[in-house]
Amino acid sequence: MRYFLLLFFTISGHSLYAQKIDSIYINLYTDSLKKGTFNYINVDGLLSNGSYMPLDSSHIDFKASAGKFEGNSLWVEPGFTGEKISVSVTLKQDRTQQKAIDIYIKQKPDGPLKTVDEIMDDLKRNKKKKS
After folding, report:
1. Is residue 119 exposed (0-12), middle (13-18) or buried (19+ Cβ within 10 Å)?
2. Radius of gyration over every alpha carbon of the chain, rounded to an integer in angstroms
3. How many angstroms separate the CA atoms of 86 and 81, rounded?
4. Is 36 left (phi over 0), alpha (psi -120 to 50) or beta?
5. Structural domains of the chain, with CATH
6. Per residue in 15-41, pLDDT tens?
7. What is the tens place of the pLDDT at every residue in 41-81?
8. What whole-number distance in Å separates Cα of residue 73 and Cα of residue 81?
């Protein structure tokens, strides 16, 4: 029974990777990169069966005009002075599959978050303006 389970998991694991990645996509969770932190760069692969699979550094090579990648996360130095960073990804199994994107650096500092009461007051004011 133990050998059967080992064989089953081995075969099912290989079937996932047997799907060819037809194309890759960069999907950002944010519109800008923050300095002094890791910024996650999400890359998805469209498989030949029509489903999508998240890709990481075991599937793709990451390059950036500035900063340093650790896995899918790009570290941007706190003192970085440029307005944007160019990021490119290349599929390891098919080097012709590449994507590139320019991602701008966040310019305004993070401010204090609004309280629940402030958000509710804003909603009430906006509702009155529409009436």
Report:
1. exposed
2. 21
3. 14
4. left
5. 20-107 (2.60.40.2120)
6. 455 689 999 999 988 889 999 999 999
7. 999 999 999 999 999 999 999 999 999 999 999 999 999 99
8. 19
